[in-house]
Amino acid sequence: MYKFQIRKNQTKTIRIDKSGKYVVELVGEGAEVEVVGGFRAKDKEQIEIEIEVVHKAKNTNANTHIRGVVGDEVQARVVGTIKVLPGAQKTNSFLTEKVLILSDKARAEVVPNLEIEADDVKCSHAATVGKIDEEQLFYLMSRGLRQADARDIIVEGFLAPVL
Question: Taking each helix axis from N to C terminus, what angle separates 134-142 and 147-159, rounded to the nearest 10 degrees?
Fold first, then answer.
């Protein structure tokens, strides 16, 4: 397990690049964190990422963005949780989990969770699992790119925000 504590008025960026459990605690008023992670997996890899962002103090902010690309026979699971404890009023927290699937045998599961115990907060989440948009692929190929090159460009563009 990887554990991080963000103290009063501290701002931090945390990068996630491998499987594991990550716990990020915002323990001081005014603490801010950005958690970003990206992965690309192939063959028969198994990816398991669990992220828990815990707001323990008031006026804290967190943005968590995880993106992954899976191919071949990869099994991936991403679980993200935002917890806001009772004293953590005026919290802002956002969680996104997105996985792009490149083969019929690859599997991905994304699970966003919100556990809110305070009443004056702004928290939300988004989660998607999908394949390459065929219209994007067609467009790039109509501009002279080979299919493999077009797929590579789409994958790079998908991962760019978190790398």
Answer: 120
Beta-bridged to residue 15, according to DSSP, are 36
**Of 123, 100, 110, the residue nearest 50 (C-alpha):** 110
Cα first-last separation, the chain: 22
Residue 147, helix vs strand vs coil: helix
Residue 97 CA to residue 105 CA, distance in Å, equals 20
pTM: 0.94
Structure tokens at 68: 């992954």
pLDDT at 93: 99
Helix (H, G, I), strand (E, B) or coil at 159: helix
Percent of the chain with pLDDT over 70: 100
CB 91, CB 121: distance < 8 Å: yes
| pLDDT level of residue 69 (50, 70, 90 thresholds) | very high
